[in-house]
Structure formats: structure tokens, C-alpha cells
Amino acid sequence: MKLVHVSLFVLVLMATHVTRAQPTALTWESLPGPYGGLAVSVASTRTPSGQTAAVASDRYYLYRSIDGASQWERIREGSATLFAAPDGAFWALGNDVLRSIDYGLTWTPFAAGLPESGAAEMAASPDSTLYAATHEGLYRLDQGETLWRSTGLKEPVLAIASSSDGVLLAGTDLWGHTADPFSVQRSIDGGQTWTPVVIQAEADALVEAIAALPNGIALASGYGMYEEPGLFRSTDVGATWEPVPGFNEVTFEAFHLGPKGEVYADTRSLGSLHSDDGGHRWEQTSIDITDVADGPDGSILIATSRRGIVRSADRGKTVEDATEGFGRVELAHVVLGRQQSLYVASPRRFVAGGDFHRSMDAGETWERVPLGFIPNGANDLHYTTGGALLLAPGACACVEEKYKGGRLYRSVDDGDTWIDVAPDTLGDDGEIFRVYSLHEHTDGTLWMLADTEGKKLIYRSTTEGVTWEQRTPAPITVGAFTIAPDGTLWIAADQSLQDGVGVYRSTNQAETWAHVTTLAANRAGAILVTPSDHIIVSALYPDFYSPDGGETWAEIDLALKEVWHEVDTFVRNESGVLFGGVDDVPSIIRSLDDGATWEPVVSGLPSAGSHYYTDLALDDTGHLWAALGAYGLYRTRESTLVGTEREMPRVHSQLIVYPNPVREVVTIKLDLIQTESHVELAVYDMQGRRVRVLVSGPLYAGDHLHTFSAAGLPAGVYVLRAKGEHTTMVARLVVTP
Q1: From CA 574, how far away is CA 558, in angstroms rounded?
Q2: Does the domain made of 654-735 have the CATH classification 2.60.40.1930?
């Protein structure tokens, strides 16, 4: 593809002459993985052919699967709580209330009669009447109707459940705040009249989670103004309640019913639990659960807080990933290794976990590598020039040892095994050693910023990170650190002093530090020094630039959309082009004149709001990679090197259908990046039934064209799926009358 070279206006800043490189037009493409991340909700139903159709939501999109969660397809924007009705329809709840009657392919607004604020939860009675919990009370939708009608419950509804014999149980917020006593509303006439049932008279709390199980069992929990009420259980469909021993101060935030009468729960302090005996005894699950739905062959589909959708055949004790095509792992770090190896890690989170992922084929396929020593995500990830991985786990002052994290780990086998290489210079036992950032000079010297119990530390390693030597601590709390090409260390403060942000440098390997200037800004996020001694400091407004090694400074426009955002990281390619990764829109900025002026480089990137994390990495061919938080991993299609027009080799196969919609003959282009020993290309209807097999056999790498007549197919929407040993692709086909 020929690229257009555009000449840009040269800006002279502070009377300093800068030479502007000729830019290369850059476009970004999203990488197919690593899949997973936060799954908000999941729901499933059975098609007439007996297959499992499912819908799921992450924070940004809705997805569907018609093959038991083996493959997910992104359907539309918007996050939602999902519900499967008895008639097979799917509902998406939130500010907008939507319904799908074609297994999640298309969605229609269905909120007539509901408040403008939408609905938060839904339940179905045995006669298929639907009930929606809203901020203005409980609403019902009778079978065959299109208008929601208010019931006799007018207070804000926090939770709703319907038993097998039609008894409704609701948790309400009577006055907009917690109210004594802790009680549940109960109805035996379809919501026309309600009776308050006191669960615990002494508790000043609200019911926020409720479930109706088989055999008349019900469960309720909530949150209190001063103390947590705990877990309560009823054996008469909510008429009377008893506390469950051992959980008197545990908040159950949500209940999820399994296909065999079991119940799963999210708790505030114990993680996710499951019970096989109606909520009397509970066991911890192997994974954090946000929602549960029926899966194929008696399994369950589990929406998780960080692994997307997983499948379990033993009620959550063990799980297998079912995330192909679903969501994106939230990423804060990306590093490139040798021979197309690629490594990413999740951001630091409080007791949220953080898996490590690797790809040995430039992002075509991914492997999740569970690491028990990073329960809180990663503060930094680095690949040394000698081929070692260094990972700095996040840390928290948690009571349980398994959640503390911290320290520093090193791997020389692509992350298969790790050893603790944190310095043994700690004080009292129990102190948490936190590594904030890792940096490497071109001569291979490594630098580490860390702290323990409030002591700010700087370390140096000349042994590829095996051993570390403590250096003189910086005179400030470091917010930004960089190594100039000549080896000078530069730091800027992460918090504003009386007069602004202090900038310091060391020319003797951190033996001493010299004050350079104090900038009239808030905390610094990133600092960069170029070979010509141009310095850029990004802070929480304004940003600053020095063209003469720090002698003079002036404010600079980094082309950021909002002043309360900053650059997270700077990189410089071999042509001298500078890039900055921003934690907001625009995500990436570029300078062609050694930092004097900046412009957004965002073609192909998400245009939504803040993603909080951005990390950049350059590969050997000059292509730029970006980890964009919850949006996942992106890469430039073209090389960033000035004067090059090389495009990045495509790393995933393609399935293209045209014309689409079609009435008669359709052409299918199947472009494989590697030879497949067996590929099946088939057409499926919306019930998941295979209606035609177009290809079944081996296919070599390259382009393959296939045509078939759609004239014999009824008008409607179909799914084309190409499945091989190394890839699975889906495409939608619309057949017109």
C-alpha cells in the first residue's frame, strides 16, 4: 500500500531551530487478543436444535455465541446486565432496556412504560410474567404484552427474585437510605400487594441480594449503615428467616443460580463462593464470579472479573477458558522480545489479580500464564537486552499473605519459571517491597525505583537484574524517571511542592542529585531526554519543554484533550521520531521535531473516554505497539521509521463475504496465514443449525475464493464459520427475499 507523505508546518519554539522529519501516515489495528478481562454478565438459552446460545457483556460491548461459548462474536456497543427469559428471548438491562429474539444477533428497545432510568434486575414467574427492578418501583410485563405496568411496590427496588410457585421477594430502599429494620418485601399475588417481612430487627441495613431456590429455600443479604447484617436463609419462601452460622459479618453482594439447584455468590470479603445444599454450607470457588449461566452438556458458563468467560463441569472447582473472541484483557504493560515474542501484563489493582500473557507469533495466538505471585496485577514489566523478563507485581497492605504481592521476579524462559530477585536490604519482617518502575540504559545497566514502608529507594543492576545495588535516594518522591542517552539520570516529582514540581539530575550514577528547576505544575507523569538534550516533562498541566538540557524551560502543548491527563510513557524510534502514550483520548501523540511540537496519531484507535493506562513499545522494524488498558492491544499498520513504507505483516486470517446482503450468488474470500490440515467452512442459521457445508478438507496458506448460491435459502440472517486447527473465523451473511 503506497503511503502519502504530508509536509507539516515547522514551529520554532523558544528561538531554537529544529529540523522536522517527513512524517509517515500511521494507522492502528486492534490485535485479536489476548481475550478475557472483566465479564459483567452472561445469560444463555437453548435453541430448538438443542445447542446453547449465549450472550455476554464486558464494560463496552455485547457479545453472542451460538456454539456453547466456543466462539464469541461482538454484536453492539454498550454494557448491560443480561437476562434469559423463559420464552428464549434475551434482555439487556441498564439505562436502556433491550430485547433480542434471535439469540442476541439484533436488539430492540423494549422499555415502554418503564422509568427513564431503565431497569437494574429482572425475574420471571412460572407463568412467564417478567418483573423489572427500577428506581421507581417494580414493574411487570405480562406474556404477549408490549407495555410494562407498575406493580404495588413503588419504592426503589434493589433486588428481585421469583420462586417456583410464584412468590415474589424484593429488597427495597424505602427512603433512599438505610432503614431499620433489615427486611424484605413479599408478594403472593403477582406483585399487586406486598407484605414487609422482618429478617433481623436489630440491623440497620438494606437487602441488596436475594435469591429464590428450589424447595422453598430463599437467601438474602445486604449492607448496613454501621455493620454488615450477614447471610440469612428461609425454608418457607421468605415468610421467616434465620441467620446462616459463620457469615454474620459477611456481605453477599449477588446470588447466581446454577442449572442443578446450586447457588453461587459474590461476597465483599471472601471472594466467590458456591453452595450445593441450598445455602447452608459454602465453599470457595477457584475464580472470581460475576455471573453464571447454563452451558453445554451440563456445564456452566461463568462470567469472571478478569478472565472473561470460562466453562466449568464441576461447579466452579476447575475451569477452562471460553473466551475466544470475547472482550479484552485489561493491559498496562507490553514488551517485545526476540523472534516475534510478545509479553503483556495487567495493571495494578487491589486484590483483583493480574494474569501474565505471552505470544510467540507476534500476537496471532496467546497463552495465559497464571502467576500466583501477582495477585494485584503488575507495576511494571521489562524485557532486558540480554533476553530476561523482569516483572514487578503490584502490592497492598493486605492481611492475607497471598494478596500482598510486591517484590521483583525474573525469568529467562519466557515466563515459564520465575525467581525472586528483590534486593535483601529490607528492614523489619513483614515489610512490603514495591517496585514502581524499571529502566534500562543502552549499555545494559538497569535502574529500579522502589519503596518499602515509605522509604523511597533507587537501585542499579549491572547483572541483568540478578543482583541489585542500592544508590542514593532521590530528594523527592519520584513521579517520572528517565535515562538520557549519555547516561545522566533525570527525575521529576510525583506531587507538587510549594512552588511546583521539582526536577533533578544525577551525572554520577545516582551518587548525588542536583536540582535543575522547579516547574509550575502538579505531579509529573513522564520525562524524556533526547540525544540533542531536548527535555519534555508531562505533568498534570501544564507540560514543559527545554531545548537546551534544562537551562531554559517553557510551557508546551502536547495536544492532549484534557488538562487533567498526562503522558504515561515516551519512546523514541531510530529515526528520532518521538511518541507519547496518554491515559485519555487522544491515546497516542507524536513529535517529528525532537519534542518541540506534538500531534495526535489516532487513526484506528478507540475514540471513547479515558482508559487509564497506556504503554508503548517499538519492534525491530519500527512498528509501534500500544497497550490501552481495557481496550486491549493495538499496533501500527505501518512502520514509524521515517522514509519507510513497509506495512506490518498480517498476523491473523481473514474471512470476507461479498456482496452482503445477497440475493443469489455470494463470494467468500478465505485468507489463511498458515496451512491448515482441515478446515470446515459452513453456513449456520440463527438457531445454530448447520444448513450447508461449503469446504471440508485441507487448505494451504494464502487466498481461497468460494462461491455458492443463496437462492435456496430463506431470507434472513446467517452465520458463516470457518474453523481450522489454528483459527476460527465468523462472518454474518444477510440473504434478501
Answers
A1: 21
A2: yes
